[in-house]
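Pair request: fold both.
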Amino acid sequence: MIPFLVFCSLLIPVNLWAAITPHMHSDVSMRILHGICTVVLLPLLWTLWKQRRLLRPVPALILAIFATVMVVVNSWITAMGMGVEFGWLDHLLLALSELALIVFFLMAPDQEPITDP
């Protein structure tokens, strides 16, 4: 899990840089970045689904909706390519989603409750 979280933390400055310099990257690099960011959000959605009974419902629902929207939008951007209006905003939201992913996995409860021996 730690290598995955380190990789996700490296995507934050990459997306912030892409937001600052929206037209300085190629179509291929943009598709790769959006594709990787989409794949990175899938374990979050899977874990939210598996642990839905252990999590607080409202924050988990908000995070799930946000992550689902990001997966759908970024899948579309990965398939269609450059030319998305307000693409810089999507990169800011991707950085935010990766930060939320890291915080969730660092603070999420264990899958099985701890019992006293």
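--- second member of the pair ---
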Amino acid sequence: MGRYYSGDIEGKFRFGVQDSHDALFFGGQEFVPATVDYYFTKDDLPKIEEGISKCVKKLGTRKDELEGFFAEHLSYSTEEIMDAIGVSRNRVDTLLEWYARHGLGVQIRDKVKEAGECRFSADV
């Protein structure tokens, strides 16, 4: 069982590395019932782009390595990632958090650019 988000964008938070409040990193507004609701507009694009840039900076050259790894693996273990990109367990956890956050930010940005706004709900 996982935690999902749905609305203008849809996806699943990465298990064990990404919490339901991760979209706050990119600005927007949060409404907290049993789910967390997010709303972004074109006015939020600078903050969204800033967040994506921070993610890219934190990931560094590992971003491309992780993209390659996940293109070839539907499921994975921490050890497989450690072996594939040559980093420690703690570093894998940190990288996965930033990688998942980056993916969410890109989804938000792309929807705002396409539709002028982005709304979605995330399981808490």
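Observation on the second member. The two ends are 13 Å apart (CA to CA).
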